[in-house]
Design brief:
The chain is mainly β. The chain is 12% helix and 48% strand. The protein has a 7-stranded antiparallel β-sheet, with helices on one face. It has a 6-stranded mixed β-sheet with strand order 3-16-15-14-13-6. Strands 7-8-9-10-11-12 form a 6-stranded antiparallel β-sheet, with helices on one face.
Amino acid sequence: MTNPPNLSKYTNLVGHDKTVLGVKYVDEELLDPDGEPLSPGVLHGRLDIPSPGARFAFQGPVPDDDESVGMVVVTDQYLKSHKPMEMIPASLEEEVPLPPAVVKQMERKYGMTAGRSVMVCTVGKRYTYGIIQFEGEYTGPDYTHDPYTKKALALEVVTDGDKVYSYPVIGWLYDDGPTWNADDDGEYVSSNIAAAFEGPQGPELCFARWAPESATMGLLHISDGELVRETYAHYISLIDEDEPMWKTDIAEMKRQYVAEDPGENKHVELTKWTYVYIDDDGPQIWISDEQEENGAFFTREDGVLHLITTVRAGLKPSFHQDARGNYLMLQGHSGGPSYYYEVFKLSGNRVVEKYVEIDVYAEIESCYLNGEEISAKQGEAYMEALPEAEERYLDWQSIN
């Protein structure tokens, strides 16, 4: 990782519209909120899961237009010899092919037929960037025969007037089609040009390649008449991650659990937790002792934990969900012939309704909806209208 003295030299944030904003190095984020080292080479789709790296702050007013905020930080020295260039997308709605003359030239060069081409953007009103994907098996230079896997070919392409520069990217060709990245559905993914500069040797295009499960950062430039693609960093890009659970979250849930009934709950050792999806705006969290007899359910909104209810010995939770609603129910014997029900309806990750019923000898003794007593007939109708209980897979995580 670059050391801080060098990082302090990076004071210019450049965007695709060639806007330059002043920034300053603040620090390096290397630890997660629990104080554990962050995993290098990993990016997260969630902003509440940090990735390791340097942090910068704006020098001067913070722009309120996201379009003017760039992705590439450079030094003053770099800007002295490199002029930022504006990039204009070829289209924001559909793929625009490269000019036929460009495609034909590349077909002749590589001896293959193009199945797809995309003009991604124009740069500085002079250059264009795009990609070409060829059909069939590639057997040209850098080809290594593999009896089990054939090769596919795509190109990164930069044009300068009549000049066409290409960088070949070899993929794999299977019976169901080609692939270059996991889950690319047989289509080569173009790079996102984050910033572009006119340098002493020609254009320098800073790119970020966002494939379905990876991200690659680097530079496209022309050297000795050839397009070169330099990779600066390659990351695993994680998707569909649950909200993180930090030690401070565990401590807060334990605090609220004990505060609900200090006399009893302070003696309970909570040892594990799991996400449960009572409603689709969740997940909600169940924290429990080892036997799953005592614990609590929580919602979390904007990082704030809210107690739904505590689980007491003898009361078993169940989950009910269909088009009528999303429910958490606790039920069990409460002494002698008494049986107890506690039902919470959730919507938007919040409790919107609470029903309580006490039965004695299987007859409703009393029932309440949102704190107001209702008739036994109304209570019976409420319980009959609940969806059937669903089995849930629970991925328990140890607190320790």
